[in-house]
Write a structure and sequence with these properties.
The protein has 135 residues and is α+β, with helices and mostly antiparallel strands. It is built from 1 helix and 10 strands. A hairpin with a 7-residue loop joins strand 9 and strand 10. The relative contact order is 0.18.
Length: 135
């Protein structure tokens, strides 16, 4: 039985890691559900289903932006762009909405029909908090 050259194996692993690191460093993510996408200023790619909507990016254990202002009847999209593969949720504090688990590249869209303030958090990481203000 021949054993592979450990130096060659490490070099190959390093090349693969470099490719993966480059993709992760770009911060790009595309929803599996989208047929076309656009890139926002954060470098994360949003699904075409979110075109024209305010988008909250989930990145580095934070909702960005922390506060979104919308008009009654408008929708908001959330996109998980976590570069390390961490899942998150967008869950209303009053239980009026819950995205379920959003793995990286997943998105969630929710309509806000009435004026008011909706605070929300990540069920998996309760320190992550944000707000949607509906006028």
């Amino acid at each position: 039985m021949t054993m592979s050259n450990p130096v060659r194996a490490i070099a190959r692993s390093g090349a693969v890691l470099a490719l993966v690191a480059g993709a992760v460093a770009s911060g790009s993510c595309v929803s599996e559900r989208s047929t076309s996408a656009s890139t926002d200023t954060t470098g994360c790619v949003t699904p075409s289903s979110a075109a024209g909507l305010p988008v909250v990016f989930i990145r580095k254990f934070a909702f960005v932006p922390v506060t979104v202002h919308v008009s009654a009847g408008q929708s908001v999209a959330w996109v998980n762009c976590e570069p390390d593969g961490t899942p998150h949720t967008a869950t209303a504090d009053d239980a009026s909405f819950n995205s379920g688990i959003l793995n990286p590249t997943d998105s969630f869209i929710r309509s806000f029909p009435a004026a008011g303030t909706k605070t929300y958090h990540c069920e998996l990481h309760p320190g992550m908090k944000a707000t949607v203000i509906v006028d």
